[in-house]
Amino acid sequence: MIDTFETQLREHGLSVTAQRLTLLQTISDYPHITADQATEIARKQLGSISRQSVYDTLNMLVEKGLARRIQPFNSPALFEDRVGDNHHHLVCRNCGAVEDVDCAVGYRPCLQASDDNNFVIDEAEVTYWGLCPKCQSKNSKSRKSTPQTRKAKS
User: Fold this and answer.
1) Residue 126: which of 95, 74, 83, 86 has the closest Cα?
2) Residues of CATH 1.10.10.10 domain(s) within the chain?
3) Residue 73 per-residue DSSP state
4) Which fold, 1-84?
5) Closest CA to 88 of 130, 121, 126
6) Does domain 85-154 have CATH number 3.40.50.800?
7) What is the C-alpha to C-alpha distance for residues 117 and 100, in angstroms, rounded to an integer?
8) Is the four-CA dihedral 130, 62, 76, 45 of positive or negative sign?
9) 105: closest CA among 82, 86, 84?
């Protein structure tokens, strides 16, 4: 995989550095990771790297099209390596889990605006909100054990 990352960096006119390779590997291994989480992982692998350096590198990877940044409402920015398509995201309202979901229609920009106001639209960003399976399970268990539920059963 490192060879692939090296090739990607070179194809985008970037020099290959341990820091860039580590962050590309990190966002590949942990899609939807925050910059702070990526910093902790990079520090374990590289020994020492500043948080600002990680932020700068992640932003540069986004700028060059090697990473994607999303920012669901009330969430820090999240980084992923799934680029080149216009996929969307499922976000759990309870725990914040994020999952990819393919484009709603299957072509870019996926959704047609009712009025484009003379914009040339090249991308649509959709976030689906709800409860992930783990939180659904927790909610159904907690409902079963509430005092009201127990009274109703008696």
Assistant:
1) 86
2) 1-84
3) T
4) Arc Repressor Mutant, subunit A (1.10.10)
5) 126
6) no
7) 29
8) positive
9) 86
CA angle 93, 96, 98 (to 5 degrees): 110
Nearest by Cα to 54 from 75, 84, 33, 82: 33
Please provide the distance, in angstroms rounded to a whole number, between the alpha carbons at the two ends of the chain. Answer: 60
Residue given tokens 């374990």 in the structure block: 44
Q: Which two tokens stand for residue 124?
A: 């649509």
> Which spans in 83-132 are helix H?
none
For 49, residues 6+ apart whose C-beta sits below 8 A from its C-beta are 19, 39, 42, 43
Amino acid at the residue 109: P
Assigned token pair, 121: 């639209």
- What are the pLDDT digits (tens) for 11-64? 999 999 999 999 999 999 999 999 999 999 999 999 999 999 999 999 999 999
Residues of the chain with CATH 3.30.1490.190: 85-154
